[in-house]
Amino acid sequence: MLHARCCLNQKGAILGLDLQNCSLKNPGPNFPQARTAVIIDLQANPLKDNLTNTFHGFTQLQTLVLPQDVICPGGINAWVHITSYVDSQVCQGQKDLCNSTGNPEMCPENGSCAPAGPGLLQCVCEDGFHGYKCMRQGSFSLLMFFGILGSTTLSISILLWGTQRRKAKTS
């Protein structure tokens, strides 16, 4: 289904996005809404050079058309084919870095690698683990966290109220 410069599926998710010749210096704050896109055309825009973090979460992206002077996000290791033309550069076939790094110990023992966009990956803790390097077993204790936070806030508030109340009585 075609809607303005977007191609949408039946559920309304963006499959294709045509932003060529829109005078964009960067894709903008709403660009992550297009993370379901399979093809994005950004040619003929004065984009800044490093777009790697711009495409965080774009795991389904398979074709990206950029201005000729902009490097494909993630570089040559993130794409199967990079083709340069006179006025554009086409990045095709996003690689899964989790399978192509050759380093099985990239993520901690209780974590697994997950693609996070072109040239990006993330380590996700397995069920039942959380925290730094997925070393903590069990779930995060919200009751303890908010209990300590609440009691500390209450204690400081009472202390400040008491010290400020004394000054209010003298003036």
UniProtKB/TrEMBL annotation:
GO annotation (BP), single: positive regulation of osteoblast differentiation
Keywords: Disulfide bond, EGF-like domain, Membrane, Transmembrane, Transmembrane helix
Cysteines joined through disulfide linkages: C125-C134
Span of domain EGF-like: 94-135
Membrane-spanning ranges: 140-161
PANTHER family: ALL-TRANS RETINOIC ACID-INDUCED DIFFERENTIATION FACTOR (PTHR15926)
Protein name, as recorded: All-trans retinoic acid-induced differentiation factor isoform X2
